[in-house]
Specification:
131 residues; mainly beta; 3-stranded antiparallel sheet
Length: 131
C-alpha cells in the first residue's frame, strides 16, 4: 500500500486501516494508521502477544510488521485463544527516520511511531565557472 496517495493537509491527520488480504477478518488483527505532523503512527490489537512475538523492520521507505499468536491458553483458563498471524508492509512516499522508529506492546496493543526523516540537505545554487 502506498501512503503517498493521501491529499496533503498538514494540519489534519489522515486515518487508514489495513488488514491482511485473503483471510477472514477474524483471522488477522487490523492495523490502524494515522499521519501526523511528526510522521505516522500505527496501532494493532494483538491480544496475548508479547514483544517477543512481534517483529518490526524498517528501511528508508518501508515498514514491515510481523506478529503471530500460536501458543496455548494461559494457565488457569480453559479457553484456547484464537490463532492468527499478521504480516503487513507499508511503503512511504517520503523517507522515514529508521533510527527513531519506536515499537511498544502494552496491554495487547502494539503502537509503532514512524517519524519522517529530516531533509538531507537544503537546496543550494551551484556556482558555474568558466574553464
Amino acid at each position: 500500500m502506498f501512503l503517498s496517495s493521501w491529499p496533503s493537509h498538514a494540519h489534519r491527520p489522515h486515518a487508514f486501516t489495513f488488514s491482511a488480504a485473503n483471510l477472514p477478518a477474524c483471522a488477522t488483527p487490523a492495523v490502524h494508521g494515522f499521519r501526523n505532523e511528526a510522521g505516522w503512527e500505527f496501532t494493532a490489537d494483538i491480544p496475548g502477544c508479547s514483544a517477543a512475538d512481534v517483529t518490526v523492520d524498517a528501511t528508508a521507505d518501508t515498514l514491515t510488521l510481523t506478529a503471530q499468536r500460536k501458543g496455548p491458553a494461559e494457565e488457569g483458563t480453559s479457553e484456547t485463544p484464537p490463532r492468527w498471524s499478521l504480516n503487513e508492509s507499508y511503503r512511504f512516499a517520503r523517507p522515514i527516520d529508521v533510527d527513531r522508529v519506536e515499537a511498544i506492546v502494552k496491554d495487547g496493543v502494539l503502537t509503532i511511531k514512524v517519524p519522517r526523516a529530516a531533509p538531507t540537505m537544503a537546496p543550494r545554487t551551484i556556482p558555474v565557472t568558466t574553464a
